[in-house]
């Protein structure tokens, strides 16, 4: 029944002014208040400096992680205006830092292209900082102002004469907002490296002054990124350690006030890696520029294969997946008015861009194939091999459906759960039948399913899809999850499919379990198996990772008994902390060599019970870095792997070398 006493009047309507809306609902503006959101507020500041690079007003950016955990971003751009705003009657820099949808990015005469077109970027950083200080040098003077939780606490100060121009912003993330306030050097480094390629010519320096980052001589960690070759150099960087088929294909065209720059290079591997950007913002979910690119390259290769006689008319056309097998590409779009889906800018929505990119790619890629017949033949030959493998894969998939499944349609070894609600259900992928038996006894059968795998699965990085699908453990995982698989990682295929030929798809809506949890031994053997499974999911079911469905369980390495009490230690460091906390008291320590040595009660209490377990969610913050690492560590070339191991050997205690 309606509550007749409820008061709902004008007094009930709250008006949130200024940046208070950002502080109340930060995830709406930056995606999350965890590590991802923390780095997002830094990127908003850095993106402003990159906009200065695009405006040809800046060629140097310095990013410093300070000893106290704050971050400073300094550039030699034009400097944020400090004169009085005509309508707000406050210094322009204060307007930019305290008002949403305020900034020079809305004025095309000031910035032709910009990543911060929503106008909420740096003001969000200010709103979500415990304090922020800005220093502006321009017109021969140095200006300074301080803010606390988004509000100015000093007037804009003129601090005297200064040479040059630029903006320096230092801020402390607000611990009242963020669950994590410590910046990660590698995460920032990946973004800065990416930007240095996209804004070719700019020199970006990253310095870490924190104590733990200093070397044995006390010197701070520092890296410099300066890539004059732009996205051509980017593609070569992504393909390091791979056997490439030709030199990078590169073209730049401007049309309708939009600049399209693309670099393409094929290698002899089986996976594609296409990265798309708009105004230096990584569009992780693609959009109209990516779909235009995919459709164009598919049609160009099919047309060339037919006209050159490399493909007969009676043969089916290549699918988009087959054309892009072994392709590494970077798409960089510069657009005056991009329409992004959400402030986090992960997908481009401008409908006119699709046709524009299609026409440019079709013309330029066709010209390249005609003018470079040797390279063209190599590319088409690669597509022919991919098509044969896909035909074999379809046959293997059909055979799997007929022979490898039980009458219930699920793998015979799967111990399914009673619930059919994906939001509630969990699937544990467990290393070994023995450990799987323990897990079956330890689980909550209502919502926890167990799928045991026998030993080491196939390395999908070294094998084509027909051999991969012929592997019983891979078949079992695909069938149990129920969402299929995709040859291009799980993304929608925007290429052409003709004659009824369609690639396999990964459909996240059909996923049977909301959480997929990899449960392997805590030793190096378990790490190897986890890596193989992760590589499979990354290459063929990427949306699992993107949408946060994939986890790694953290079983303990030790059981510690002190009198009548029992404790568990995840690793050696955890054991040392326990020993320091119990002092001289007598301890009985049991080392678990594997999951099979844990009794079901141990496994339930430490690894499967949501009240006590530790799970690590697998994320994909930097797809380029992930692809490069997987290719290096899991690929067929030995030299890059040896180099990686040698350069990182000091960072690990137990180094296990696999052939």
Description:
The chain has 659 residues and is α+β, with helices and mostly antiparallel strands. The protein folds into three domains: 20-225, Histidine kinase-like ATPase, C-terminal domain (Heat Shock Protein 90, 2-Layer Sandwich); 230-386, Ribosomal Protein S5, domain 2 (2-Layer Sandwich), CATH 3.30.230.10; 407-555 and 618-648, Rossmann fold, CATH 3.40.50. Helices cover 35% and strands 19% of the residues. It is built from 20 helices and 22 strands. Strands 1, 2, 3, 4, 5, 6, 7, 8 and 9 form a nine-stranded mixed β-sheet that branches. It has a five-stranded mixed β-sheet with strand order 10-11-14-12-13, sandwiched between helices. A hairpin with a 2-residue loop joins strand 3 (129-138) and strand 4 (141-148). Helix 3 packs across helix 5, helix 8 (288-307) runs parallel beside helix 10 and helix 12 (433-442) packs across helix 18 (600-608). The radius of gyration is 28 Å and the shape is globular.
